[in-house]
């Protein structure tokens, strides 16, 4: 019998190789779960209502003639179905989630508890303002913190994600340009090659032409390159800082000056603000607009904890164009402004039907208040320290595209070190799944070949980082020794083996048709 390091018996060798196949297909706690359409039938549950007497449909013949076809399960069956599915998922609550650029930080339970207080969670967007003063106070307080931390003039809270915030900030820039009568001439936005895909998409969506700022070998954007691209046709630059290569843009102040001298605006993608909160204020660096991903920087993992929220801070030059609604105090009482009142306010419109993501505001403010200014600063420092700890611990095995220099909150490796091993970045990521880790961000940023972007966040303890590093080192040495089979078929232990991602992308099957036989569905 094989024993593990704690002396407990384990399956011998490769887990599962000596295991008897089970009748159900389940492997103890790892339970097979078919699609709900395969196990549920609409006849099995629901409420039987008596046929109404003398009922004449008033839908003019458009009423449904056949069964609706929704699957039905009893309550325990429905609960098991979703709980089992949730157990197949990987989440920040089950393990380290090193997804670079996504900031999968721990969502403190305190923040969740506050967001679920009935006064916040049950608040309705159509309630009279006089009944939601507490909610307005949360929004106002959060706004003050965001403006203070960034040293800007105002903030538009309502955007519902980072990309939505980009749209908001760029619309404010467009409105400012139009107000100056330059709407026809300034139609170009500079976007560095290393930018998140949402940046050029945002600029293009509202009618700007994207002019790329070419990448350099050192990973930084250079003011000389920006100056060469500037002209009377340039409306703005969209620059990420810290950038997607995990580096602080060391010429950001000079770039801001050059942009302003050319009469353009500086949009900063602030999704990586979590690396500098309490250390640097973007307003001091010359930004005019920046979205903040509350879900990344101030509690809540990206995409993993419910809705996002992307407030946009604005400089004095853009503040008059901030969208409605916003909050003001009238005779000491907070109220929502839904329409511009005087000529100093020229809101470009509104981003959302109502007021944004209340739950995210509460989580973010709870995070801020429970950390305090010193705690927020330490979170940034710890995030950067953790990323550099991983960088330094892997630097002898993994190659870094921009030389062995310190990173910010995320460390970027490329695939040069995998050359001639027969293992690709994708294979390596899949093998990480077998080791119980969510893969790091792969193939982004695009400027780096075979990119592996790792962001541990401040949430991870040293013990957790050490195990992660040891696992990556073990995999790396395996790859270098030519043990390709550990990678080529990975993941071996996940509920689903490697999927044909090309086929899934090219010919996606978006509609469920008929139940596949059980064994086939499990392949
Ligand atoms: C996450 C991210 C975004 C987009 O944020 P969403 O909330 O996912 O829309 C934009 N830019 C960068 C650099 C990011 O990391």
Descriptive account of the structure:
The protein is of the alpha/beta class. It has a domain of 258 residues: Aspartate Aminotransferase, domain 2 (3-Layer(aba) Sandwich). Helix content is 33%, strand content 10%. It is built from 16 helices and 14 strands. The strands form four sheets. A seven-stranded mixed β-sheet has the order 3-9-8-7-6-4-5, with helices on both faces. A hairpin with a 2-residue loop joins β10 and β11. α5 packs parallel to α11, α6 crosses α7 and α11 crosses α13. The longest helix has 37 residues. It is globular and about 75 Å long. The two termini are 30 Å apart. Bound molecules: pyridoxal-5'-phosphate. Pyridoxal-5'-phosphate (PLP) binds next to α6.
What characteristics describe this protein?
523 residues; alpha/beta; Aspartate Aminotransferase, domain 2; seven-stranded mixed sheet; three-stranded antiparallel sheet; 14 strands; 10% strand; binds pyridoxal-5'-phosphate; pyridoxal phosphate binding; oxidoreductase; GDC-P_C; glycine dehydrogenase (decarboxylating) activity; EC 1.4.4.2
Strand order of the largest sheet: 3-9-8-7-6-4-5
CATH fold-level assignment of the domain at 110-367? Aspartate Aminotransferase, domain 2
State mean pLDDT (0 to 100 scale): 92
**Largest sheet properties:** 7 strands, mixed
DSSP E strands, number: 14
Alpha-carbon Rg, integer: 26 Å
Distance between the termini: 30 Å
Helix and strand element order: EEHHHHHEHEHEHEHEEHEEEHEHEEHHHH
Please bin the fraction of helical residues. Answer: 25-40%
List bound small molecules: pyridoxal-5'-phosphate
User: Total number of helical segments?
Assistant: 16
Coarse shape? globular
CATH H level, superfamily name of the domain at 110-367: Type I PLP-dependent aspartate aminotransferase-like (Major domain)
Give the CATH architecture of the domain at 110-367. Answer: 3-Layer(aba) Sandwich
Low-confidence stretches: 12-16
> Structural class, from secondary structure content?
alpha/beta
CATH top-level class of the domain at 110-367: Alpha Beta
What fraction of residues sit in β-strands? Answer: 5-15%
């Amino acid at each position: 019998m094989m024993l593990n390091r704690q002396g407990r018996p384990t399956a011998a060798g490769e887990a599962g190789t000596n295991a008897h196949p089970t009748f159900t297909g389940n492997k103890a706690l790892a339970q097979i779960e078919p699609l709900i359409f395969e196990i549920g039938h609409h006849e099995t549950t629901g409420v039987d209502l008596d046929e109404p007497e003398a009922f004449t449909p008033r839908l003019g013949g458009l009423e449904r003639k056949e069964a609706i076809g929704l699957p039905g399960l009893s309550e325990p069956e429905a609960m098991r179905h979703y709980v089992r599915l949730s157990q197949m998922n990987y989440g920040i609550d089950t393990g380290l989630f090193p997804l670079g650029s996504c900031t999968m930080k721990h969502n403190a339970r305190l923040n969740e508890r506050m967001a679920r207080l009935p006064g916040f969670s049950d608040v309705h967007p159509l309630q009279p303002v006089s009944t939601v003063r507490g909610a307005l106070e949360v929004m106002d307080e959060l706004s003050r913190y965001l403006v203070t931390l960034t040293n800007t003039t105002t903030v538009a809270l309502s955007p519902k994600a980072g990309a939505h915030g980009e749209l908001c900030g760029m619309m404010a820039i467009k409105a400012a340009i139009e107000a100056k009568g330059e709407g026809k001439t300034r139609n170009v936005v500079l976007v560095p090659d290393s930018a998140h895909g949402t940046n050029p998409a945002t600029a293009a969506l509202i009618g700007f032409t994207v002019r790329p700022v070419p990448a350099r070998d050192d990973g930084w954007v250079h003011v000389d390159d920006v100056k060469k691209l500037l002209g009377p046709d340039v409306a703005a630059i969209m620059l990420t800082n810290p950038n997607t290569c995990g580096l602080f843009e060391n010429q950001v102040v000079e770039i801001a000056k050059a942009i302003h001298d050319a009469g353009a605006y500086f949009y900063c993608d602030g999704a990586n603000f979590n690396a500098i909160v309490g250390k640097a204020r973007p307003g001091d660096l010359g930004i005019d607009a920046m979205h903040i991903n509350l879900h990344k920087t101030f509690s809540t993992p990206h995409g993993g904890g419910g809705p996002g929220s992307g407030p946009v801070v604005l400089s004095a030059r853009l503040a008059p164009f901030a969208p409605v609604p916003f909050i003001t105090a009238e005779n000491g009482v907070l109220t929502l402004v839904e329409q511009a009142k005087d000529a100093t306010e020229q809101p470009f419109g509104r981003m959302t039907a109502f007021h944004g993501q209340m739950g995210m505001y509460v989580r973010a403010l709870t995070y801020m208040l429970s950390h305090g200014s010193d705690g927020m600063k330490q979170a940034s420092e710890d995030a950067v320290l953790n990323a550099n700890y991983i960088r330094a611990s892997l630097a002898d095995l993994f190659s870094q595209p921009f030389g062995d220099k310190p990173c910010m909150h995320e460390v970027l490796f490329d695939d040069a070190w995998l050359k001639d091993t027969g293992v690709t970045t994708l294979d390596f990521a899949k093998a990480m799944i077998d080791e119980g880790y969510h893969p790091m961000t792969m193939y982004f940023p695009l400027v780096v070949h075979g990119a592996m972007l790792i962001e541990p966040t401040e949430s991870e303890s040293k013990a957790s980082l050490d195990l992660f590093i040891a696992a990556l080192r073990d995999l790396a040495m395996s790859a270098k020794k030519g043990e390709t089979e550990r990678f080529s078929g990975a993941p071996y232990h996940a509920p689903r083996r490697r999927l044909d991602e090309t086929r899934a992308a090219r010919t996606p099957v978006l509609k469920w048709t008929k139940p596949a036989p059980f064994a086939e569905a499990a392949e």
